[in-house]
Design brief:
The chain is mainly α. Helices cover about 75% and strands about 5% of the residues. The radius of gyration is 18 Å and the shape is globular.
Length: about 170
């Protein structure tokens, strides 16, 4: 338990005050945008590396996973499988470890909160697949980075709206 609380403290999600207790800090809109920017950089590098290293079997799997998102009952899980396959195609355990940590910022209910982002995400997956298939690592990187940054901006904007609403809401 102590280690988990220390980890949350290092991540800035709780404040530990000796002899007073623990306070949940939460995440600010700026924190969300910054975290997604870091994730975007990692995802972009993963897409670029995957482009250079992907096998034809992995590319076929990516096409299948992208298509499966359309009929998925759990779009979030299907989306994660797609991104995980891109990441695995890098062949870089170190990068995958960093991505696994960075992706924790993405809410599990992202598409429920932002249903309008689902169609954009599918379109961008297609663009990413096209870039990977033609061997254009620079384009794959740019598409993957923009894909994640757009999601982060949506989350940051939503959090800012919540923050503003709480600031004007009467306290009880």
């Amino acid at each position: 338990m102590r280690e988990a609380l220390l980890e949350l403290s290092y991540e800035g999600l709780v404040a530990i005050t000796p002899r007073s207790g623990i306070t949940v800090v939460g995440i600010t809109p700026e924190d969300a945008v910054d975290s997604f920017a870091i994730l975007a950089a990692l995802a972009g590098k993963a897409a670029e590396m995957a482009t250079a290293r992907i096998t034809s079997a992995e590319l076929d799997e990516l096409h299948e996973l992208a298509a499966a998102i359309d009929g998925a009952g759990d779009v979030v899980a299907a989306n994660r499988r797609f991104h995980r396959a891109v990441n695995l195609a890098t062949g870089s355990p170190r990068l995958i470890t960093h991505l696994r940590q960075a992706v924790r910022i993405v809410p599990g209910n992202y598409f429920e909160v932002f249903p309008e982002q689902e169609q954009r995400s599918r379109r961008e997956h297609g663009e990413l697949l096209d870039a990977i298939a033609r061997g254009d690592g620079h384009a794959a990187r740019a598409i993957a980075e923009a894909h994640v940054l757009t999601a982060g901006e949506a989350l940051g904007g939503w959090l800012a709206e919540l923050e503003a609403h709480r600031a004007v809401a009467p306290s009880h």
